[in-house]
Amino acid sequence: MDQQIKSELRSIVGQNYFLDSPNELYVYSYDATPLYQAMPDVVLIPACVEEVSAIMKVANKHRIPIVSRGSGTNLCGGTVPVEGGIVLNMNRLNEFKEIDQENLTATFGPGVITADVHKAVEAVGLFYPPDPGSMRISTMGGNVAECAGGMRGLKYGVTKDYVMGLEAVLPSGDVLRVGGKNAKDVAGYDVTKLLVGSEGTLAVITEITVKLLPLPAAKQTMVAYYNDLAAAARTVQRIIVSKIIPATMEFLDQATMTVVEDFARIGLPLDMKAMLIIEQDGSEWQVEHDMKRIADICRAEGATEVRTAQTVEEGASLMAARRSALSALARVKPTTILEDATVPRANLAAMVEQIENIAQKYGVQICTFGHAGDGNLHPTCLTDERDKEEIYRVEQAFEEIFHTAIQLGGTITGEHGVGMAKAGYLDLKFGPVGMEVMKRIKEAFDPNGIMNPGKIFAKSTRRRVVVKGDGCGYKQCEHTHS
Questions:
Q1: What is the pLDDT of residue 470?
Q2: What is the average per-residue pLDDT within 211-228?
Q3: SS3 helix, strand, coil % of the chain, rounded to 5?
Q4: Disulfide engineering: 203 pairs with which of 21, 168, 362, 403, CB 3.0-4.6 Å?
């Protein structure tokens, strides 16, 4: 990128929001995904849609890659600028524009923090369900780009189920508005849903409108412990078959319980093989009725102990312990690789068993937790990226885990997205026809290929790219698997 182009970009955002020193660029060379890193050429921090549009016109004219990002909490390498270019930090577009209590919607910029949306709408008795684990620091723009999920996905769905309207800037610099506040709208293709989960490969999101629900009147939390993994998985199936849909139904295996207990000190019984944390919300009568039936099912399926939280604080403590799982695991070894794979609920037990077998096969440490109610598991490997031989075995293990998920009727990602981390596996899910359709959509939006290049579509059989550097000379190390 020559100085004339840099000068043009600087004039758009101003000197204070144009970053190109080595230290500043380094901060934007990675995200929350281990093992991925690449330096951008510049970082721009626009303040409005007009500035984003002007930047896109310059980038498109000169074929400069654009990577938009918020807090960088994604776990798929989605915001690593693998081909350099411009990183757009969208956090200045953080205006909370409206809570429309008549239409039950909220409208805000992509830089608004997810937890702040929850607080704002709950203050007026409304509810935005998606609750990703990173919600206290993740931005709504990032949630939309990755179609974030969370622990309430079983009952309430994920981000795409709540986004009603978007404003976005196309690579050409044109501003596109899709969707809106209409409860029904079947005019033309659903471009709104297409942009949700597109991981910054089609456009830059500059405004979001989401639907809201009435805030549930009551909530209860329960924990059930098992000395058998299969019994815990059967419980999940039985609860759903009984036509009870809890707000949350979380699974932790024994290895994860041990690490979480060491971190949170809440008295988990470490001789148990698994635990379920179950939460229900709704009317007081419905919650009481459902939780009694759930407790009976847990005991009938072999739970050694079933305990309902007696206070709101106790329930919050249990949920906080679950939310702390990744933080707790990250304390054990220098590198923590958190993945996600989803299978139909009926195959949950088989998937957990296969993950254990795969970990033993490759001699790696994998702890498994996740959203049992929707079949979304998070096998998490505790390793050390300095041990290249072990990292190679880790990658072999995860490759087999993804193949196993597909064989069990599942998918390679339930909520983390594809990014760089899973680009090499996407064809397992879609096959050649599906891949070709998606590539055509990408080309229609982005004919010059500037939008977040190197993501979603693998250019080779490469499974994971490790880019390291000492601040000036970067080199790339690759493992290629069959």
A1: 39
A2: 96
A3: 40, 25, 40
A4: 168
* Distance, CA of 241 to CA of 144 (rounded, Å): 31
Res. 481 pLDDT band, cuts 50 70 90: very low
The rounded percent of the chain whose pLDDT value lies above 70 is 95
Q: Are 88 and 110 in contact (CB under 8 A)?
A: no
Supply the DSSP string of 56-89, one letter for each residue: HHHHHHHT--EEEESS---SSSTT--TT-SEEEE
Cα dihedral 116→119→124→127 (10° resolution): 90
At a CB cut-off of 8 Å and minimum separation 6, what does 344 contact?
375, 408, 409, 410
426-460 pLDDT, tens digit each: 999 999 999 999 999 999 999 999 999 999 987 64
Q: How far apart are CA 172 and CA 191, in angstroms?
A: 17
What one-character-per-residue DSSP string does 176-210 give? EEEE-S-S---SS--HHHHHTT-TTSS-EEEEEEE
Across the strands, what pairs with 178?
A: 166
Say whether pTM exceeds 0.90.
Answer: yes
More confident residue, 1 or 207: 207
CA angle 467, 472, 477 (to 5 degrees): 20
**Does residue 359 sit in helix, strand or coil?**
helix
The answer to whether residue 38 scores a pLDDT higher than 70 is yes
**Distance from the Cα of residue 332 to its chain's centroid:** 22
**Angle, nearest 10°, between helix axes 426-445 and 388-407?**
90
373 phi and psi angles, rounded to 5 deg = -65, -30
Give dist(CA 116, CA 169) in Å, integer.
24
Question: How many Å apart are CA 477 and CA 466, to the nearest integer?
Answer: 5
